[in-house]
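Here is one chain, start to finish.
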Amino acid sequence: MKRFLASILFLLPLLTVKAQINLRNLRCEMLVNPLSVTAENPRLSWEIVGKERGLKQEAYEILVASDPAKLAAGEGDLWNSGKVETDNSVYIAYQGKRLASNKACYWKVRVYTNKGLTEWSGPAQWGTGLRYYKDWEGRWIGFDRLFPWENAAASRLSARYFRKEFAVAKQVKSATAYIMGLGLYELSIDGKKVGDQVLAPAPTDYTKNIKYNTFDVTEQLKQGQHAIGVVLGNGRFYAMRQTKAYKNNSFGYPKLMFQLIITYTDGSRAVIKTDDSWKGTADGPIRTNNEYDGEEYDAQKEMKGWDKAGFDDKSWLKAEFVQEPGGRYEAQMNENMKVMKDLTPVAIIKKGGDRYIVDLGQNMAGWVKLQVKGKKGQKVTLRFAESLQDNGEIFTTNLRDAKATDIYTLKGEGMESWEPRFTYHGFRYIEVSGYPGTLSKNDITGRLVYDDIATVSTFESSNAVLNQIYKNSWWAIASNYKGMPIDCPQRNERQPWLGDRAMVAYSESFLFDNARLYTKWLDDIKYAQKPDGAIPDVAPAFWRYYSDNMTWPGTYLMVAEMLYNQTGDVALLKDHYPSMKKWLQYMKDRYMTEDGIVTKDSYGDWCVPPVTAEAGKGVNADQKHPSQLISTAYYYHFMQVMMRFCKITGNEQDSTQFAQLAEKVKQGFNSKFYHEEGYYGDNTLTDNLLPVCFKMIDPANKNKVWKNLAYIVEVTNKGHLSTGVVGTQWLMYGLTEIGKAELAYGMATQKTYPSLGYMIENGATSIWELWNGNTAAPKMNSQNHVMMLGDLFIWYFEHLAAIRADARETGFKKVIMKPKRMGDLSAVNATYRSNYGEVKSDWKQVGASFFWNITVPPNTTAVVYLPVAPGEKVYEAGKLVTGKEEGILSTKPITGRLVLNVGSGNYSFEVKK
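Its structure:
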């Protein structure tokens, strides 16, 4: 869900402050299937912003009109909701007239609050897409063949260029362009790029579904002659490697479906569509483009004015009709990628001759923009790397066979500026060779590319290690958002591994507004499910890995639960519930014994740290240690998750079956894996964490297991972790659950091996794939990964910062604010922007006094746990709290705390004697 599509100021008559409603249309796309809920009933949400305490919605009224003038006049010809009494302000389903394809809908809302009735908001808009297959009037075009200079074995394929001229004879009322450019496209009209997206559209399994992008191009079309230009890159469509058909899923040569619908002011209509009247060529300046290997651009072959009217295209080929990809056509609702930040080099080191090493100071994903002046035909080669060798040269061994090289050939016409269109790299360093003249910091710019999603939090604390981990993680997460969550941006992999994101997606949600991305990814997983129920380890299934295990495919359930917790969206659970149930039945039928043990696991606790960094020197981390303990524990956990989903989605009839199966698995698990000495399995940290976190321990054994778990961390590990991907997902929660939050804090702030702080101490500016990333063999050793973040940022925000959504009133409708003070931590200042607005928690301990400033968004409440010792009193805004203050709904003293139920607003608490 994209937040803050429009911001509208209006007055609350009974307030002395201005309030604001941010209108946002959530999942407003019209899908191909006209019977789906989202197709018939797009959902609308708004955000109320006001400083008054206890501000709460009591009712709303929505108008939806087919024309801005009608909306301004108060005519909701598509829908007038009337006054609807509810405090719900998110995911309000449209209930108006049936919506046709390619129609603009204009809407506004006013809110009845406990402080008075607002004025109508300003207008917002959504558009319906092309709902039906037959709404696409054109046909797919392309060149389904190699050209003489191309090489399939080397995955070298040039960009395809297509153009079409047309005339606009009358005044245009509206014009909307729809495009499916596969694998990647760049669209222009009259020589000007349409939109600011890059590497679009979002990748999918194109045999299952294809995303189309939509653009309002009304302003670009005046009366006269025009030209459409489309460049097609390879992306994931023409796979980066063509030599392993058994593994790599490739979909063919790039192809295009395009439709421009023009509505004139006289009511007539014209459609410009892809057909064989278009012209095309592959003999343009982009000679090859490949996500792994880079892009080669020969400026000598530029075709000046090729995407403008009047260009001589006689030498171009007639566009050829090609086979359609096969997938259903869907409006893309997750954000496209953009260039989100530019970086100036921190150092440029001349290596002799015309060769330089450029240091951007930050590991990132994207590309560089180059400025260069030289002779025609000169080549500048850019090679990318994450780190340097001891001799100062770039280190590329960990890229495997990814060439990660861009080549620019000059045209020799003064200062030339270039950046690639259809590739990206994971890097900090660039080797520049063949550069004419002296390379300066003004000549090369790093461009960070990731999905156009907002950063929704801030975090600062009194602990420098925690703060730097937050910063490094931000860069790692951003680098690996590429229309899907990928594992790494640099080597010949870059795959959407499910196992990397189990609880990590939850952690990420506290940093980025990632709900649309992960909603799209749930669809990718559902589409990848086999008819028998199997779910792959990678989705979309660009690699054909269906290994059948609980932990990797089980991310499907965990991401769905995360989205529900953070947003309160019930619809996505209803959508995916059948597929989840089918997968669990598949795993039960295929791999569960009569004793309730799930026998299939593929990876075990992937990438457990070696005992020491030196012990792991040169060791390849690609080692699998399957564990029936892990697979059985996870099956039990998923039964608990499904029982929750049953209740939420109205599938209560399944709950009894899940409960009975869960009990069987629990009994079998304890019988097989529990040892009377008080530990599970091989007594690893992960083996004991899972039954603790999944609440599988018999009550009589709980204290022994808890004590043993703490002993492993505190004594055996000397305050360090010893978990791989699976255990790290539950590490902070597990230690906090057993009352060892202090131990969790100590582990999170370690600077010695193995820890995130150790990575920082050894120069990391993002997050390593391996705990011993400075010593491990390079084959599997990314320096920009997220899988080891686990549940860390859930813990940061829910426990350190005290910002957590109530499990019963999800989506931050009710916020639980219960700070944990531990170790040397004396202050945390954090914000998180939820669907309802910004939640703020800023606490600090100064001497014997505790200060806490909080902000609770309008239309929500919070349960605030103030730490109070015997003899201490609580003040708010300098006055003793009695429970009668405005906004404080109730007070309740408990041991060590004063619990306040509060409404929205800003509060300033002080606890002192």
